[in-house]
């Protein structure tokens, strides 16, 4: 999720699962992405995006690579 990339709720859920694998089940970004994918509320999506962008670039890239295929 670069600054201008938009993702849908399904993709947020997949990214959350990838982050659980990469960073662990207690990772705040993983939890926020899972929650945002379930609720779809603007507040949850904003929180998930903010926490995802705070991850190390390698963790973000790894998550995207995992869901890509």
Distance between the termini: 17 Å
Largest sheet: none
What structural class do the secondary elements suggest?
mainly alpha
Number of helices: 4
Count the strands?
A: 0
The radius of gyration computed from the alpha-carbon positions, rounded to a whole number of angstroms, is 10 Å
- Label the overall shape: globular
Regions with little confidence, pLDDT below 50 for 5+ residues: none
What is the H/E order?
A: HHHH
Classify the beta-strand content into a percent band. under 5%
Helix % is over 70%
Mean pLDDT: 91
Count structural domains. Answer: 1
Textual characterization of the structure:
By secondary structure, the protein is an all-alpha fold. It has one domain (9-68). It is 75% helix and 0% strand. The chain has four helices and no strands. The chain has helices spanning 9-23, 28-39, 42-54, 57-68. The protein is globular. The mean pLDDT is 91.
Keywords:
globular, mainly alpha, single chain, 69 residues, 75% helix, 4 helices
Layout of strands and helices, then pairs:
Elements: H1 9-23, H2 28-39, H3 42-54, H4 57-68
